[in-house]
């Protein structure tokens, strides 16, 4: 049966299991929008195309399946770039659909043309380095092959964003719907080990104080339960990267918390002082996690590394044993081997002694240094107590959550990783809530980042999407001010600003507002506010002259 290319694209979205598409219509994509009228795919009108890409990324992070955004040609497409770059860095399967001028006016100066012909901007070149696959579809005779390539990039072993740019006249052409049958949907990749697990097991047997360093790859592999069971069975403590907070429930005896320059330092100190075997599971050991690749973390230690991505093996350090394969399957295999051998649990003496020492402040000045942030500590403590499971937390700030938020193994914490773009948390949380409709959802961000994306709160209002926006109000770009304090002799420039009246802003949006200046007000918030079914703007006041102690620039 003949159908339009636009209808074929919508059917393709349905086959991918996509049920929301985030975007903003323009003349060059109206044929596709028109076909949404009779589709199960729901369109969500955003306030800026960057928000559409972030929303699609947020949905993909929560659902672990493809998501989609759409924009018109020219500025609509270029406005997607930051969000698509973020998806690329986070390996999120985001399909971006953009319009284009009709092919018969390519190179003639069409309105918003981005074909790359003549003096027109080359949209494909702009997206080339931030997508797994991109294509300007100028003809229909290879449409099946294009959609098949797009599918492999979205659903393959190493997923990532895809851009399909479709000229206006091509969208209206007719094709046979059998084109969809040319698309192969890849199954789950089988677990293949490039190195036997026997060497990994042998390192574990010989180790006195092994530590698991769990990265985001553990979450992607669905390996939370087996890692928690492995840690418990053999008394092996676990520390995580920022993106992997909650792989094992934080605040439990074997959880060392986050490893990273903005963390409280517990994991760092244990690794340096006691560990003799480091087990990297899906952890890239990037600048933040590695404390700028501090050699003391790896010195005089054996290293085992498991990652599904061969490019990660040995990229930063040389492991004694490396396994390229599915983390879940590898850990299940090693677990079975060690159980069969009857390996006894490791001693808890070092860990217990370390935790007892770490729980005592090193001196009064260290304890005093944390006082300016008591409200943030109390907020994250209250959040963990009020929502021990099923909460979604999108965090652009990360500094406070890394140390103060004990993420349970049933909560979901999504730091602003990727390219760490400000203005990410609110749209990403909206996208996530479109999938996880019953999950209490929080977007945590500074007041500078808030003003980059606050308009998307109206998207939540327009569609009745419950959301809690938590703004850290200190009237400054905190990271910049801290660096200028620490590294530039307090020569402050372009870091301080005035905020709007958040109460009046919330009123204009038609949402609830809470201003938090004391722990009593926080207690009242968690005790009485509806943080599940309404939209709330929560501002927490901080002193802009107070800085975390870590050094963030070299």
Describe this structure in words.
By secondary structure, the protein is of the alpha/beta class. It has 3 domains: 181 residues, Thiamin diphosphate (ThDP)-binding fold, Pyr/PP domains (Rossmann fold, 3-Layer(aba) Sandwich); 161 residues, Rossmann fold; 178 residues, Rossmann fold, CATH 3.40.50.970. Helix content is 37%, strand content 17%. The chain has 23 helices and 20 strands. The protein has a 6-stranded parallel sheet with strand order 3-2-4-5-7-6, with helices on both faces. Strand 2, helix 2 and strand 3 form a beta-alpha-beta unit. Helix 3 packs parallel to helix 5 and helix 16 runs parallel beside helix 23. It is globular and about 75 Å long. The protein starts with a strand and ends in a 13-residue tail after the last strand. About 1% of the residues have low confidence.
